[in-house]
Inverse folding.
């Protein structure tokens, strides 16, 4: 075993931070190199002593494994150190501002975590008798009530597991409603400024997807939408605020036109954090909208926890909501399932998941709602928008902001690659930000902007944190404008230099193999 | 053989009732390094303006639309091993598929080389 079998070596560049100090290990003080787990453990050894089990008659009927499965053998400290070392090479919201546009990487309040670990919430099981989990059901019901109230809708489906799953839920409800009136429509319209999952969900549900263009100011082209509406259109899927970071001002007119054509309105609510407490989508004519609890309501995501994507529904779609759901009957909470739905919820389109939804996320979202209150949630939206506009206006002199003239942005600031020196791209800016100690912004999305850079600071950053990020991005942007050749090689200070993403995509190596096997295959 | 172009940046080289389709040099430059190409198998019926192939680069995955309707007679198998052909030779070895044209009059609305050049400059 070699400690640094696959990694960076001092001769690969100035990653040691300028000084040409070479170390025996390849480590740089607290920046530790880490081999693959197979290179530490080896498959021929074991890290723990376990007696070979006494032989007995096998009951596998010839299905026994005939050769070793090749797991690496590590001791407990080796395994713990391996993953801890890897985690130190990661960037996380607990380390700094995470400007990924469209992702809402906001701080996850520790109060949420404390509440989620209360044994009464953490240790219950979905198959427990409902009499023993009344508090858990009451909490799910409470989160649902808040979501209905905040969105101005009629009903909520709590079980979808994430945003795209919520989209599926919404479209299944829309299809059920249309089929119930004997109206099989086959087209879903999706504006260019929508999230990429929207057309994917529509296609998954068997609909033909058609694009609606954006106007020069980055909003849905209402005239083009109206011109396309007709008896074959089942629904419009619209993201509001949209992926250009702009509020769709014509939303009410869009909904009215869609409804007049007999179709329904799906709103992608991933960006609800920009309008929560200020705008109720139900007032804008929305029929279904998913809410990412892991964005707007601060539950962890991006590797830190599962998503949760409850869907709020209008009166037109409420009868088709999926099972199971929780209903309040007097002072008791009951679970409405297939056996109990017949008398008053027989039109449900069915069940999407086995149980109630992401209980741990519901607890965190409830803690967030109750600790902020209605006024606090309104301030969340206001501060998210204020912070994004601060970023936009602080950088528009060095980065092209294609929709800066369209008025204030919402929760995210969008820039293009225009104005950079010949040969410099959005990718170079992203890599430069890594050297500055930031996770890069979302890049090359939305597609409507050339070389897009989408920055979402969220409301949880202080002005000092924003100023530091703005200073870093300004410095990198200036280097791109001036054509600093060193920027083309960035990152210089990360554990690895610029990776060959093309080769990784064209010839991916997805499986570790024993060195002798790998050599024999060549 | 006559060369036509679409606003979606496909080229189509027509020779009698058959044609070869690919994406333009402008398109490959915008996409960046191509890492994966999915082409339709022979016998697939494609419809003008509808998705016929998929091209994936380090930046994005994009649909390639059929410039005209027809039946695929052959697809470029070399692209699965070497998608970089689309970058190095977009308008020759990097072709996507060959078509038997359903309706040659569909070619009428397409651009010629000069028209496409002017179109790209306007973008």
């Amino acid at each position: 075993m070699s400690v640094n079998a696959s990694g960076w070596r001092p001769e690969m560049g100035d990653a040691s931070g300028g000084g040409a100090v070479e170390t025996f290990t390849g480590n740089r003080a607290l920046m530790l190199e880490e081999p693959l787990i197979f290179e530490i453990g080896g498959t021929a050894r074991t890290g723990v002593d376990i007696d070979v089990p006494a032989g007995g008659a096998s009951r596998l009927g010839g299905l026994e494994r005939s050769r070793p499965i090749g797991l690496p053998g590590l001791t407990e400290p080796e395994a713990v150190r391996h993953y801890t070392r890897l985690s130190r090479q990661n960037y996380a919201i607990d380390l700094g501002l995470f400007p990924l546009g469209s992702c809402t990487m906001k701080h996850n309040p520790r109060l949420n975590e404390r509440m989620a670990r209360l044994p009464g919430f953490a240790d219950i099981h979905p198959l427990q008798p409902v009499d023993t989990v009344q508090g858990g059901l009451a909490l799910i019901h409470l989160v649902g009530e808040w979501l209905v109230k905040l969105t101005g809708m009629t009903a909520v489906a709590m079980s979808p597991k994430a945003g795209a799953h919520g989209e599926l839920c919404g479209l299944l409800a829309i299809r059920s409603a249309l089929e119930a009136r004997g109206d099989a429509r086959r087209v879903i319209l999706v504006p260019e400024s929508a999230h990429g999952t929207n057309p994917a969900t529509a296609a998954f549900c068997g609909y033909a997807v058609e694009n609606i263009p954006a106007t020069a100011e980055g909003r849905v082209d209402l005239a083009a939408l109206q011109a396309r509406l007709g008896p074959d259109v089942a629904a419009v899927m619209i993201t509001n605020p949209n992926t250009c970071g702009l509020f769709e001002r014509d939303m009410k007119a869009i909904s009215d036109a869609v409804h007049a054509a007999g179709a329904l309105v799906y709103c992608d609510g991933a960006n609800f954090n920009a309008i929560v407490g200020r705008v109720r989508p139900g007032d804008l004519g929305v029929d279904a909208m998913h809410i990412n609890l892991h964005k707007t309501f601060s539950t962890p995501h991006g590797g830190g926890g599962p998503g949760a994507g409850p869907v709020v529904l209008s009166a037109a779609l409420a009868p088709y909501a999926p099972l199971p759901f929780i209903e309040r009957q007097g002072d008791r909470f009951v679970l409405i399932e297939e056996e109990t739905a017949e008398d008053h919820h027989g039109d449900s389109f069915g069940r999407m998941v086995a149980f109630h939804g992401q209980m741990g996320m519901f607890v965190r979202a409830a803690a967030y709602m109750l600790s902020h209150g209605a006024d606090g949630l309104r301030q969340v939206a206001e501060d998210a928008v204020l912070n994004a506009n601060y970023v936009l206006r602080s950088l528009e002199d060095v980065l092209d902001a294609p929709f800066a003239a369209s008025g204030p942005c919402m929760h995210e600031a969008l820039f293009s690659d225009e104005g950079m020196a010949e040969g410099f791209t959005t990718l170079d800016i992203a890599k430069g930000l890594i050297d500055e100690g930031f996770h890069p912004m979302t890049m090359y999305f939305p597609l409507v902007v050339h070389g897009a850079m989408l920055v979402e600071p969220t409301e949880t950053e202080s002005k000092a944190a924003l100023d530091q990020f703005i200073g870093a991005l300004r410095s990198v942007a200036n280097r791109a404008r001036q054509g600093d050749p060193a920027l083309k090689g960035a990152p210089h200070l990360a554990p690895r230099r610029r990776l060959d993403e093309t080769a990784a995509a064209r010839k991916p190596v997805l499986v570790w193999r024993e060195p002798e096997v790998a050599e024999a295959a060549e | 053989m006559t060369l036509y172009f679409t606003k979606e940046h496909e080229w189509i080289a027509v020779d009698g009732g058959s044609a070869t389709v690919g994406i333009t040099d402008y398109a490959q430059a915008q996409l960046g390094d191509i890492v994966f190409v999915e082409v339709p198998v022979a016998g697939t019926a494609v419809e003008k303006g509808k998705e016929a192939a998929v091209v994936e680069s380090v930046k994005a995955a994009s649909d390639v639309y059929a410039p005209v309707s027809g039946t695929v007679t052959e697809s470029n198998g070399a692209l699965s091993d070497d998608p970089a052909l689309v970058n190095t030779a977009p308008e020759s070895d990097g072709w996507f598929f060959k078509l038997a044209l359903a309706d040659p009059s569909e070619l009428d609305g397409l651009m010629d080389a000069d028209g496409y050049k002017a179109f790209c400059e306007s973008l």
